[in-house]
Amino acid sequence: MNFLFLLLPVLTYLVFFENRTHVLSNLVIVILAAVSMILCMSFPIHLESGFIFDLRSIPLILVALYGGYKYGFILYLILITYRCLIIGGDGAIQAFLYNTVIFPFIQIWSRRFQRLEKNHRISLAVSVSFFTILFYLITLAFQVPLNQEFWILAINSLSTYIVMTFILTFLIEKIIANMKAREAFVHSERLHLISELSASVAHEIRNPLTVTNGFLQLLNESKDIPRKEKGYIEYSLLELQRAEQIVNDFLAYSRPQSENMVYSDFKEEVEYTKNILQPYAHMHQVEIHLSFQNTLKRKYDKNQIQQCLINLCKNGIESMKDTGGILSIHVFERKNQIIISIKDTGIGMTEEQIARLGKPFYSTKNHGTGLGMLMVYSTIHKVKGTIKVDSEKGNGTTFTITIPV
Fold first, then answer.
1. Which residue blocks in 255-370 are alpha helix, DSSP H?
2. Which of 135, 110, 113, 111 is nearest to 122 (CA)?
3. Is-contact 397 390, C-beta < 8 A?
4. Looking at per-residue confidence, does 371 or 223 come out higher?
5. CA distance 41 to 182
6. Are 205 and 244 in contact (CB under 8 A)?
7. Would you state the pLDDT for residue 50?
8. What's the CATH class of domain 2-185?
9. pTM of this prediction?
10. Superfamily the domain 260-404 falls into
11. d(C-alpha 120, C-alpha 124), whole Å
12. pLDDT class for 49, splitting at 50, 70, 90?
């Protein structure tokens, strides 16, 4: 029954709340975990020896590890309040002291836990659960005789916590992996659709633009038109040139161009990006630091990769234009993958802004179109790479591009 209570928040979230916004999802998880924890305490396991045992600590451990201090502390307060004020009775003081002591230690592992890979997260969650119940048994050993019944309780409680934590963490990781896979698929389909649409629309628009441009040039050469009106024609020609450039950009972004394909290690493109943006960075009191430690090579469209890096670095510089700062570009290799890390010390982004990056016409700038970041995601997608964004409001942003070789 206790295990069913632990499964309740996982299944409820999966069925009803999986597609909610990030903030709402966290709130829902805390509420569901609190309900699970309260049910475990309300319907504990009564052993023949007189001991009462439940799995209340597992929701607290998992929420603290995955959600961090803020959400873990909310669950800690709920646990203490319900155990000490609602249930009460013998052991309330011991429960308060025990949970107060273990909670900070769980939080110490939370930040490291969130940086680990899937299998390591499962192992760490099981380890934290094991040491948590082990500490409980050690404190219990000072209060009861160490007879056969105690050792039976110890063996069963340790094995139960390990198995239950493993199953729940595995299910949570599977849900997270499925969500990421679905998001990647949807994003891939969106980029493919935009690529096809931009190519077809660009071709259709280019013909009337060329005709209009030709007629305006003829009009501009006419001697029958007053000089003032010729000024209007010149402005029109400039705007047509800008429109043609946009069309050409759409065509360039829609698919790799065979004449631009190279087999290289990204060094030339990264150095080109640094050199071309150096004056712009200097104008905004930004230093560009470049570190290159890669020997791996792969095939890619040189122009698209250059434009992708320029867009990312330019965004980083503009995020520091009021305060200045450092833009770090680090290229290195890891397990047959080329890693490009672009880090700034600018204004940062919220989790909601990060989630919307790369979507058409969304931009964090007041007058931005969002097409620059769309091009970035599209280019990295074409080389089968991934983009990870780590950012915190006021503490800068790091774009980590992973490209398989």
1. 267-283, 302-318, 351-356
2. 113
3. yes
4. 223
5. 36
6. no
7. 64
8. mainly alpha
9. 0.62
10. Histidine kinase-like ATPase, C-terminal domain (3.30.565.10)
11. 6
12. low
Other CB atoms within 10 A of residue 2 CB: 20
Residue type, 302: K
Which range, 90-94, 134-138, 249-253, 259-263, is most confident?
134-138
Q: At what angle do helices 22-42 and 69-81 cross, to 10 degrees?
A: 30
Residue 358 is which amino acid? Answer: G
Tokens representing 388 are 């990870």
For residue 82, report the phi and psi dihedrals to the nearest 5 degrees. -70, -40
Q: Which residues lie across from 85 on neighbouring strands? A: none
**Spatial distance between the Cα atoms of 3 and 240, rounded to a whole number of angstroms:** 67
Residue 165 confidence (pLDDT): 93
CA distances from 32 to 17, 26, 56 (A): 11, 10, 13
What residue ranges do the domains of the chain occupy?
2-185, 190-254, 260-404
- Tokens 């760490």 correspond to 124
- Between 299 and 358, the higher pLDDT residue: 299
For 228-282, the DSSP string reads HHHHHHHHHHHHHHHHHHHHHHHHHHHS--GGGEEEE-SHHHHHHHHHHHHHHHH
Residues 6+ apart with CB under 8 A from 60: 33, 37, 72, 75, 76, 79, 99, 103, 106
Count Cα atoms within 13 angstroms, Cβ side, for 400.
9
